Amino acid sequence: MAFSRQSSSFDAIDAANPIIARIRSITRREALALMHPGDHLLELNAGTGIDSFHFAAHGIHVLATDAAPGMIAQLKQKQRAHPELPVAVMECSYLHLDRLGERRFQRVFSNFGGLNCTPYLDRVLQGMDRLLLPGGTCTLVIMPRFSPWEVLGLLKGHFRSAFRRFNKGGTQAHLEGEHFTCHYYSPDQVRRQLGPQYELISLRALSLLTPPPHHDRFTTGYPSLYRSLDHWEERVAHRWPFRNWGDHFLITLRKR
């Protein structure tokens, strides 16, 4: 599986990318603003646990879940290296959250579009809802249908990639030689599927004006322009309609 193959190099790729660092900083700040030491957090598609151990260092009890055996191996290695941090690890697909039984959580977190790897977002959200306590919050980072940077590819003649997110059946993506289907969702879809028992706390765009992570050389090639785009993105990222767009959107909701 593609994500297992990438697991051994995942942290190095992540650490070397300033755009990923920016996105992680934003998502962590928003998630932590709602957390309290002692809270129990369920992380979906936790990867190698980069966010899991960050939250645990703030006193959050984390259950890090992932379906990729390679990612689980990396998580367990970090768990052994940091026994003082409250991180539990479980190999579990977010499509099978019933395996968590009677466990309950104050927080749910999912970063970097892991939820875009399934056509069954409704099943994931139903499973999450069962596990989230009343008053609890979920913070999700998901890829929407409209990405300005991809549409700009028209200027270079990249017609297929410019509109690939609008394909109803999803788009083929590849990683480490493996192909899989990526599905794109809107914030409205998330809200509709969770229903009126969830209150919107915040919604913002990520990489709306700033480039997405795979354009990381932009930060060193055009540093002044990157800083300017970052400044303007922060001014409009929470505003309608821009908050629905971007390479990803960050949405936080509270269960009533």
Characterise this structure.
The structure is a single chain. The chain has one domain: Rossmann fold (3-Layer(aba) Sandwich). Helix content is 37%, strand content 23%. It contains 10 helices and 9 strands. The N and C termini lie far apart (38 Å).
List the helices and strands and how they pair.
Elements: H1 2-15, H2 18-32, E1 40-44, H3 50-56, E2 61-66, H4 69-81, E3 87-91, E4 105-110, H5 121-131, E5 132-142, H6 148-151, H7 159-162, E6 171-175, E7 178-182, H8 187-194, E8 198-206, H9 218-221, H10 223-236, E9 248-255
Parallel strand pairs: 1-2, 1-4, 2-3, 4-5
Antiparallel strand pairs: 5-9, 6-7, 8-9
Helix pairs in contact: 1-4
Helix content estimate: 25-40%
**Residue runs with pLDDT of under 50 for 5 or more positions:** none
**Overall 3D shape:** globular
User: Can you identify the CATH superfamily?
Assistant: Vaccinia Virus protein VP39
CATH class type:
Alpha Beta
Strand order of the largest sheet: 3-2-1-4-5-9-8
Mean pLDDT: 94
| Number of helical elements | 10
The rounded Rg comes to 18 Å
The CATH architecture term is 3-Layer(aba) Sandwich
The biggest sheet, with number of strands, parallel, antiparallel or mixed sense and barrel status, is: 7 strands, mixed
**What's the number of extended β-strand segments?**
9
CATH-assigned fold name: Rossmann fold
What would you call the structural class?
alpha/beta
Element pattern in H and E:
HHEHEHEEHEHHEEHEHHE
Q: What distance lies between the first and last C-alpha atoms, to the nearest angstrom?
A: 38 Å
Strand content: 15-25%
Instruction: Tally the structural domains.
Output: 1
